């Protein structure tokens, strides 16, 4: 049995209180997690505040080399990280391995691009020399979700640290271990003690203490819209910037001229990946009436062929993260008042019945005003709604409070570009679905999906502030 302890200033802190870390595949106890509170958070912030000035004074080249060493260590420990991630989240091992690979990619990518990031000269005439500087905020606080704990921790740590900030990260209650492992590997890569700190614990305790701490100068949050509002209020109280990546209700908009086989494959992947527990999951299928029957049948066939099992056995679909999440999914599915249940609709009754599993579920012809079509279910549940023309398709796709991702499936590229401009989403994919996109692609939402951007070079801008300097010459 392990105990996941706070990693602060390059060392582990003892745990005053702990709680159980549960295996979602069978409900067994994997180990204990330290229940950090305001005292541990304050120690982490003080450690970060001591370390940050000297770290910021190093050259971008030095920080880039350090992150590259860190990335190499993540690659070396890929299998161990993946197995831990699979156990904590329940996701299939192959998906967890991909997450470990992407975590290293974040560190390596930001290490490579940071040297080309800083400042610009502004021509104001021969008597004035004007330029901008990009400066770190100082101590940044980050609270991340449980669905991609390794990726989310890596992308936050990498972009914040490489720009000269120090980080205090609070991982999700259910999935703390890979963030702690990343912090330990950072120390091995010679990231100075205190630059990267991780405080596990409960959101209402450790998370609240972190977002309210007076020395935190920037906040990042990945999670539900409801909690995001609380984080935004905490940031507003102290007038510090925040980047919020919140929920989604992403739509696949499939026209009659689409490649239906390719669309069916991507639609299936985008809702079954990580058991549908992805903010960018393609949870709505908005399909032209002429191809609705054919496409629904194709997706249903793929759903029926899906294998279920514990993550370490690498099935197509693992369990949900907890029994609580399973009950949330059950509530949405059993509460649906319209549509025809085509596949699934329940927890399995045979293998996996003791875990937090849910069968791939497809409900055809759902009223778009229903909660299951409007709210984030966060499970392997897909609902469909037909349309007759472009205007109706656009209205349906934009017809939720969210705006994270959308996908267009059509061979008409004029239509694709036209509608991409009108879709209310932070990312739009055409004849593909990126489930959040690559490391290089700016990622974030509009409306209730949040604000600010992570990933890509834009994330570096988010972790720095611009200072303008103008000097009269002569």
Automatic annotation (TrEMBL):
A GO term, aspect molecular function: aldehyde dehydrogenase (NAD+) activity
Annotated active site: 245
Positions of transmembrane segments: none
Keyword Oxidoreductase tagged: yes
Keyword check for Acyltransferase: no
Domain called Aldehyde dehydrogenase: residue spans: 16-469
Keywords: Oxidoreductase
PROSITE patterns for the chain: ALDEHYDE_DEHYDR_CYS, ALDEHYDE_DEHYDR_GLU
Coiled coil start-end: none
EC number, UniProt record: 1.2.1.3
Family stated for the protein in its record: Belongs to the aldehyde dehydrogenase family.
Protein name stated in the entry: Aldehyde dehydrogenase
């Amino acid at each position: 049995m392990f105990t996941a302890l706070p990693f602060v200033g390059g060392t582990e802190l003892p745990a005053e209180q702990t709680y159980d870390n549960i295996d979602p595949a069978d409900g067994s106890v994997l180990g204990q997690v330290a229940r950090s509170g305001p005292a541990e958070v304050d120690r982490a912030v003080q450690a970060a505040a001591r370390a940050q000035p000297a770290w910021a004074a190093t050259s971008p080249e030095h920080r880039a080399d350090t992150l590259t060493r860190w990335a190499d260590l993540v690659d070396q420990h890929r299998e161990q990280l993946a197995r831990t991630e699979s156990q904590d989240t329940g996701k299939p091992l192959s998906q967890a391995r991909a997450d470990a690979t992407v975590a290293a990619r974040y560190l390596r990518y930001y290490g490579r691009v940071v040297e080309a990031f800083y400042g610009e000269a502004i021509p104001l005439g021969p008597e004035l020399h004007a330029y901008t500087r990009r400066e770190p905020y100082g101590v940044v606080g980050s609270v991340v979700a449980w669905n991609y704990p390794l990726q989310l921790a890596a992308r936050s740590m990498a972009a914040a640290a490489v720009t000269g900030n120090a980080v205090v990260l609070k991982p999700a209650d259910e999935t703390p271990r890979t963030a702690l492992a990343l912090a330990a590997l950072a120390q091995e890569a010679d990231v100075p003690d205190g630059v990267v700190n991780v405080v596990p614990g409960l959101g209402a305790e450790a998370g609240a203490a972190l977002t309210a701490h007076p020395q935190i100068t920037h906040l990042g949050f990945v999670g539900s819209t409801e909690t995001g509002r609380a984080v935004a209020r905490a940031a507003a109280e102290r007038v510090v910037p925040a980047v919020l990546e919140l929920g989604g209700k992403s739509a696949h908009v499939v026209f009659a001229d689409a490649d239906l086989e390719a669309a069916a494959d991507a639609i299936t992947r985008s809702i079954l990946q990580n058991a549908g527990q992805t903010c960018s999951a393609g949870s709505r299928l908005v399909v032209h009436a002429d191809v609705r029957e054919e496409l629904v049948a194709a997706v249903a066939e793929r759903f029926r062929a899906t294998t279920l099992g514990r993550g370490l056995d690498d099935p197509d679909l693992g369990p949900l993260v907890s029994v609580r999440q399973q009950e949330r999914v059950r509530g949405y599915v059993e509460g649906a008042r319209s549509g025809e249940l085509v596949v699934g609709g329940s927890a399995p009754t045979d293998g996996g019945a003791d875990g937090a599993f849910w069968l791939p579920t497809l409900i055809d012809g759902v009223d778009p005003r229903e909660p299951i079509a409007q709210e984030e279910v966060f499970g392997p549940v897909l609902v469909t709604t037909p349309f007759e023309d472009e205007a109706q398709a656009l209205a349906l796709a934009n017809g939720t409070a969210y705006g994270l991702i959308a996908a267009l499936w059509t061979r008409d590229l004029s239509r694709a570009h036209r509608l991409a401009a009108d879709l209310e989403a932070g990312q739009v994919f055409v004849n593909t679905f990126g489930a959040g996109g690559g490391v290089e692609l700016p990622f974030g939402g509009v409306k209730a999906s949040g604000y600010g951007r992570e990933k890509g070079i834009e994330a570096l801008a988010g972790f720095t502030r611009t200072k303008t300097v103008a000097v009269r010459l002569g």
